[in-house]
């Protein structure tokens, strides 16, 4: 039986960067990227590096914890593991703050990507997201804080997800109101926030 080879995250990040560069070239009909495109490409590369650094930290921390035997562990055992992982990650990045990963340059690049999806106010992605903004109960989030279970399953438009840089399995994007949230899915931890990212 053949086994599937897992692509390293750095390899995925490189593919994303190359795809973005190729898309920019096509958009410019073969012309060299303008300053905005070049700045965005550099910012997205910086985002990938920051995510990779976080991943190294959280994976080294998780290796120190007792491993879960399987996904059918008792709920209380899974919850205890999640809480221990979140606590250790907080201890490993005690000075983490908003904008550490979503830096100013990264926010600008993300804003351009988001605007390319939401420029059509009548698109399905726009309508569903704006409707969600009205129905999701306002929550106060902070970096290194717990991402509430009550809003864990908010819908993320597939058209937008396809535009944003690919994340490793341990991380996910979430939308709360107009904010874009970077979440550690396994630790249920807020890694960073991009306030008012969406229109």
Mean pLDDT across the residues is: 81
Q: What is the element string, with H for helices and E for strands?
A: HHHHHHEEE
Q: Report helical residue fraction.
A: 40-55%
Q: Give the number of domains.
A: 1
N- to C-terminal separation?
48 Å
- Unreliable runs, pLDDT <50, ≥5 residues? 1-7, 12-22, 24-29
Number of helices: 6
Question: Quaternary status of these chains?
Answer: single chain
Total count of strands: 3
Beta-strand content bin: 5-15%
Q: What is the rounded Rg?
A: 18 Å
| Strand arrangement, major sheet | 1-2-3
Major sheet, described briefly?
3 strands, antiparallel
Helix/strand class: mainly alpha
Shape, per Cα inertia axes: globular
Q: Any chance you could write out the topology, listing elements then pairs?
A:
Elements: H1 9-27, H2 35-62, H3 75-92, H4 104-118, H5 124-135, H6 158-163, E1 171-176, E2 179-184, E3 189-194
Antiparallel strand pairs: 1-2, 2-3
Helix pairs in contact: 1-2, 2-3, 2-4
Brief rundown of the structure:
The chain is mostly helical and about 200 residues long.
Defining traits:
three-stranded antiparallel sheet; 9% strand; disordered N terminus; mainly alpha; globular; 199 residues; 6 helices
Structural write-up:
The structure is a single chain. The chain is mainly alpha-helical and 199 residues long. It has one domain. It is 49% helix and 9% strand. It has a three-stranded antiparallel β-sheet, with no helix packed on it. A hairpin with a 2-residue loop joins strand 1 and strand 2 (179-184). Helix 1 packs antiparallel against helix 2, helix 2 (35-62) crosses helix 3 (75-92) and helix 2 (35-62) packs across helix 4. It is globular and about 55 Å long.
